[in-house]
Amino acid sequence: MPVFNRFLNIECPSRLEIAADGSYPAFRVAFSADGEIPFPQVIVRASGRETLINGEAIVGSEEASGRWHYQVSMPAGRAASERLDLQIEGCRRAEIQQAGGGDWIKTFAGVRLERAGDEAGSARHGQTGSAEPAGTGEGAAQAGAEQRSPSAQIQLAQSNGAEVKVYFGIHKHMHQPYYDTTNPDYWDGEKDEIFGSRGGNYTDFVPAAIRQYRDGGLDHGGLSTSWSGTLIEQLERCDELGRCGGRFSGWNRALSEMASAKTALGNPRLAFSAFGFYHPLMPLIPHRDIVRNIRWHRELIQRVFGAEASRVLFPPETAFHVRMIPALVEAGVEAVIYDSIHRFRACKDYPYAGIEEGMLPPNPADQTNPPVDDWLQLHNIWAASKISPSLLRPEYVGYEDADGELHKIIAIPAERYIGNEDARGGFGALQYPDVLGQLYQRIVDTGSFDPKHPPFFLLHSDGDNHGGGADSYYHHNTGQLVDWLKRDPRFELTTAEDYLQRFPPDPSQVAHIEPGSWAGADNGDPQFMKWFSRYDQPYSPDLNSWAVLTAFQDRVHTLEDSEPDHPALAEAIRLLLTAETSCYWYWTGQTGWDQQVTNAANLGLSRIGQAIDDLVASGQDRRGPTIFPPWVTPENPGGKRWGQGCLLDAPRESVLHSFVSDCAGLKSVELVLRSDTGEQRLPMHDHGPYPSQTGAALSAHYLTAQLPLGAGDVRYYIEAEDQRGNIARGSLERIFLA
């Protein structure tokens, strides 16, 4: 059978007619290759979202010459943009988990979308064209090979009196949640399969990659990796009980040994990132729970791997909000990783890409940073919006609390689009010289290079899922990466610790970052709506879980403050932190996940409920109410909101929502608004406990407040008082009210 080496041609419509609502019809794509493709697939990208088609949906046939033809019917869809981007790719090996970077070949095509009545619109509807795929002919293949092994003659460009160099790092995230919040030892055949299929990921893949960095002479080469406490504890049980056929006997040995490897500056090549033990969505949990998660995790890393956890935090889901900063600093964190797009969007004059970006336009209240002029549209990679190379560097970011105190921390960008492509398989899926070369050239062309603070960003992905978690990523593709870096002096792989030691950020320069998470969480919008699914419906499983959790947090923290030695407190705290695991919101609509928070809260309350009642009855409760971080609908009052495949004007009228709970009962809850005209207090309307459908023993009160029209750029916080006179104040937030 001829070996597949290249695509020969592609046939697809050059144009499609779309309806007024942005819907386009189904269409056909055909492509041919010089041999059979064991694993062909087509990716359609539109409006910031991807559709993957593979398997039986792609039909292939062979010619006598050995050429193969493939056809696929692309489903109808909806897009607000003027173009569909197609990525046609194939893996040359049937054993996809064993595929190396050189086994993946891809090419691109585009389909223009035109509305009825547009010039050359309906007359060309369904017209197809064929073309030689870019970068897939013999000459292009040879050029690609030369690109993957750049000549040692490459010269560094000069800018601002220094040689221009771009630094980057790699981060791998490892996590498995508890599948039953009330029984951490729950196990069945499905769990055995899930863990068993990740044997190398949880043992020796990471050390194998770092070994190649070290042996390849990369003085500063290493990677950071985040391991949740729930994953580690389950692996320890696998080791102890021989689960997964004994695959995890001594699972941490290679990792512990590699933990002693050092860079040229004496920092670990393998950095176990600071992390949240139970994988919580940190922007939405209380200060003390963030601190406890990080400290417990640090102790676990030391015990299991014999290494000190890094002072650089990878927050679960890459979810960051500046209100986290005080808790991170208290926990000993010195730098936090965030998704780069949220720094770009926080600039004035940000070039919003429309619905393709997958998020609403930035709220003007977040756009406080100066404009930049080096915006770059990446090519040969899916990038729904432009990036700014000058902003891809660590810097201080700040949060000002309600008392006017500024809290600062270093923030390290994880580049969204380049990282996403790297997550598909490393070298091969991502052509580092080409894509990073575009970034390098833009820096040179704009003269934006700062030799004291050169570019540095992370490429982050799951370290245990297909693509960035495959055997080939850590072995074959890493070998290609090392070979390229040895030949191309424009780029350097480095650890975050080495970079910060060589190029510390200026603490006098403090920026703002828009809230948000990684792209895989519904594009990581600033409102964290992946964890607020169905918020606009009469009942939301996600809102139910937040309401139940808020009430549980209040009781556990009240008991901790009043009776820190209570015998049931330790179990209650563990149940609480387990219930904060972000996964229990991620898979909304699946009863098994939607029920998890309630199960943990009910069990915990059964242990401490009487103690709480006794505290209240004796008047010993001196803690104010628990306030859940507020959210606003519509998200951008007077700006834009989501329509069906489009953006619509959002009403100026808006409502603020929150959950508040107190074991002694609520006396009053007020919204405090601060603007240029002064401060005003608005009473919040109490709708009573959120109506749970999971049998919750307790649920926090759901409160709302109508926001004033035309207040402009405001800061606000919630203040609540309980029946005992105890007062609590929430974090200081920001929003623009048109």
TrEMBL record:
Residues 223-345 form the Glycoside hydrolase family 57 N-terminal domain. InterPro entries: GH57_Enzymes, Glyco_hydro/deAcase_b/a-brl, Glyco_hydro_57_N. Residues 116-152 are annotated as: Disordered. The keyword Acyltransferase does not apply. Pfam families: Glyco_hydro_57 (PF03065). Keywords: Carbohydrate metabolism, Hydrolase. One of its GO terms (biological process) is carbohydrate metabolic process. Signal peptide: none annotated. Residues 129-146 have a biased composition (Low complexity). One of its GO terms (molecular function) is hydrolase activity. Belongs to the glycosyl hydrolase 57 family. PANTHER family: ALPHA-AMYLASE-RELATED (PTHR36306:SF1), ALPHA-AMYLASE-RELATED-RELATED (PTHR36306). This is Glycosyl hydrolase family 57.
